[in-house]
Every structure is written in C-alpha cells, then in structure tokens.
Amino acid sequence: MSESVPRGSIVVGVDGSRTSYRAAQWAAELAGLRRVPLVIARAVPSTTYFSDADAQPIEEAFRLQALTAAKDEVAGSATSLRREHPGLVVSWHVYPGTGADILVDLSKSASLIVVGATGRSRTRTSLLGSTATQVANHAACPVAVWRGEHASATPDARSVVVGVDGSPTSERAIEYAFDFASTHGAPLVAVHTWIENELPYPPTVAPAGDEERETALLAECLAGWSEKFPDVEVVRVCKQASPGVELLTQAQDAQLVVVGSHGRHNLAGALLGSTSQRLVHRSPCPVVVCRGDAQR
Questions:
Q1: At what angle do helices 18-34 and 56-84 cross, to 10 degrees?
Q2: I want to staple 140 with a disulfide (CB 3.0 to 4.6 A). Which of 43, 107, 191, 273 is the partner?
Q3: What is the mean pLDDT of each run of 10 residues along the chain (296 residues)?
Q4: What residue intervals traverse the membrane (predicted)?
Q5: What is the pairing mode between strands 159-163 and 143-146?
Q6: How far is C-alpha 281 from the chain's CA centre?
Q7: What is the C-alpha separation between 76 and 95, in angstroms, rounded?
Q8: What is the dihedral of CA 247, 275, 26, 256, to 10 degrees?
Q9: 88: burial class by Cβ within 10 Å (0-12, 13-18, 19+)?
C-alpha cells in the first residue's frame, strides 16, 4: 500500500523517459493554475535477477542501484519543475512495485492522475498497455493520458473536445471539460454521434427523426453547464458517425479530449469502452478519461 498524497493533488507517474517528463511539465502547469500540490511518483519493480541463493548479495546490490538511480532522476525532475513553476508545491516519491498498482492506489486521494502514453521500452505501446490503460480502468479519479509527439507541454487556447452520449460517465466528462476550458480560456467542442442501428428507439422511428432526437439529447446533456461556465464558448457537433472516428477527427486541432470510461451501451463498472480505448491509443493530443464512480 502506497502512502497517501495530499487530498486533491495532481499525481504524475514518471519513468525517466522524455515523454513522462513532458507529461510532468503538463501536470505542473495544471497544478499551478489550480493551486494544488504536484506529486511525482516513480515505481521501481522488485525484479528477480538470479534464482541462486548465493547470488542474493549481487541481486540486492542491483536493486539498490536501481532505487538510487530512480531517486536521483525524480529528485532532478522535481527540482526542474520547481524552477519552472516558482511557488508550486512539488513532492516526489519512489515506490517498490508496479506503476499501475501504485498510481491506482494514489488515485484515492488525488484529483487527477497523469501518465505518459509511452515509456522506455522499445515496444512503444508497452507502457500504455501495462500502465496507462490499467490506471484509466481502475483509478478512483480522472486519468489524463499525455499523448502527442508534438503536443505542447503547456495548456493553451486551442479547443477542448468532449464526447457526449448521455451516460453517467459522459456527465463527469462534460463537467471536467467545461472546468478545464474555463480555466484555460479555451473553447469547448461537444461531440455527440450516433449509429442508426444502435439507437435504442423502436424501429418505427424514421432516420429523419433520429437527428432531431439526438440533437435534443445533446442539448439536454449540456443544459446548465453553459450557465455555470458562461465564459466558455461551446460548439456543438451532432452527426451520424462512429464516435471514435469523429472524436479523433476533432482531436486533430484540439489540446485535449475528454471522454467517459464507457458509454450508455456498456455495463456499469466495465473496463474502458471501445471509444475511450481508441482515443487512449491513437489521439494526437492528451486524453482525460473520467469514470462514473470516480470522485469529483
């Protein structure tokens, strides 16, 4: 069990890679604007190198070397981030174990977990498969997967895209997206799509009525949020299309995409739905995944 972090803090998982440091820079920007502490977390797996008992001293030496190197790296990152963000409270911890388990544990106190989409491995999807997706599936708070080879490490005025489908997780995503857009002075693009054969309507409903119904659903989902965040310019996109394809299209010019962990056609408590999975793996910009049972 990892020690808890200050409640409401932003936690970023790092592994020494350039991507994870850029994710940490992005997390530091958010923490500074939201005036919450930033916690840098690094995992050091308890790897067994030798099976021979006589080699235990050598193995302990390897573990100590890995632990020392990890602490030096994280301490250096913390120092750099403090220099870049004077006044920001930055702490760091190195934990034994796997990154996914540690970040999920820390998410119980955090307001946001940030993790890079790639790591040190030559297989660039390895960290994504072993850490980012696992954390997004099980965290107790929203999870930001920092993506994009050319994405800015600093939030800017480009649009924030949010997927809307009427589910509880979508409601969480809308709330997060409005708050983010308001904080950073960015416009919001609310995207709602439908596929004719998947609509939960009687077969007597004509396709011409589908658009009217879906447009009304989008308006209902956004009702109240514009009043709460009057400074946010909202663009509505409502069309018959695959949600994953349309969100990826809108993401091309966006700084962030926000989605629920699963939509109205998934069982509650299920793992990431196909749309969120697709975005986490392919989006050209960071993706925030909100779970229906996550804390606000």
A1: 50
A2: 107
A3: 81 92 94 96 76 65 84 96 96 92 94 79 42 86 84 82 93 96 96 75 57 93 94 96 94 94 50 78 92 58
A4: none
A5: unpaired
A6: 12
A7: 17
A8: 20
A9: middle
Architecture of the domain defined by 159-290: 3-Layer(aba) Sandwich (3.40)
Report the alpha-carbon angle 235-149-35, nearest 5. Answer: 65
**Cα dihedral 59/61/66/72 (nearest 10):** 170
Count of residues making up the chain = 296
| pTM of this structure | 0.85
CA dist 81 and 41 (Å) reads 14
Cβ(119)–Cβ(127) under 8 Å? Answer: yes
Q: Which fold has domain 10-146?
A: Rossmann fold (3.40.50)
Rounded to whole angstroms, the Cα distance separating 45 from 99 reads 8
Distance CA 244, CA 231 (A): 28
So where are the chain's domains? 10-146, 159-290
